[in-house]
Structure formats: C-alpha cells, structure tokens
Amino acid sequence: MRRNRSPFNGKRYCLNKNTGVAHDLDNEKDNCQIDEIHNDHIYTSDYYYTDIKAHTSYEEDCDYCLRKDG
C-alpha cells in the first residue's frame, strides 16, 4: 500500500537501508512489516532497477512482495 506521508511520499518501492531488503509497496504483504522500519532507514523510489537495486544498501528482494514466482 503506497503511503503519501514522509518518508514514503507516494513512491512504489521501498528499501530498508538497515537490512538491505527491497519492497514493492503495490504488492505489500503483512509479513513485509513496512510499518516497523525506522524512518531513518527508508529509501524510496518509483524506479526499482535504476534506483533501488543500484543503491549501496541493496542486498536482496523481499520474499513476500517481490517474489520471483509471483
């Protein structure tokens, strides 16, 4: 679920800079626990490959919202 408040600002993708896990907020699941991420650890973008995956903190995709098998 996209959030319009800061630090999400309506962006589609969220990276937890603390854990390196990327999330798709349009496909968010309860197990993603987005609300548990500290605001200082959030990086958002509408560009998954060029911004999120290129970020120095990126390590992996979330197993729940960015699963390869759908």
Q: How would you describe what is shown here?
A:
- The protein is mainly β and 70 residues long.
- It has one domain.
- Helix content is 7%, strand content 20%.
- It has one helix and four strands, in the order βββαβ.
- Strands 3-1-2-4 form a four-stranded mixed beta sheet.
- The longest helix is centred in the last third of the chain and has 5 residues.
- The mean pLDDT is 95.
Provide the descriptors you would attach to this structure in a database record:
7% helix; 1 helix; 70 residues; mainly beta; globular
Secondary structure: elements and pairs:
Blueprint: E1 13-16, E2 21-24, E3 42-45, H1 48-52, E4 60-61
Parallel strand pairs: 2-4
Antiparallel strand pairs: 1-2, 1-3
Helix and strand succession? EEEHE
Number of helices: 1
The N- to C-terminal Cα distance equals 17 Å
> Average pLDDT across residues?
95
Our Rg estimate from Cα atoms comes to: 11 Å
Major beta sheet, specifics? 4 strands, mixed
Q: Kindly state the percentage of residues in helix.
A: under 10%
Strand tally:
4
Q: Spans of 5+ residues with little confidence (pLDDT < 50)?
A: none
Beta-strand residue percentage: 15-25%
User: Going across the major beta sheet, what is the strand order?
Assistant: 3-1-2-4
Structural class: mainly beta
Integer count of domains: 1
Shape: globular
Brief overview:
The chain is mainly beta. The chain contains one helix and four strands.
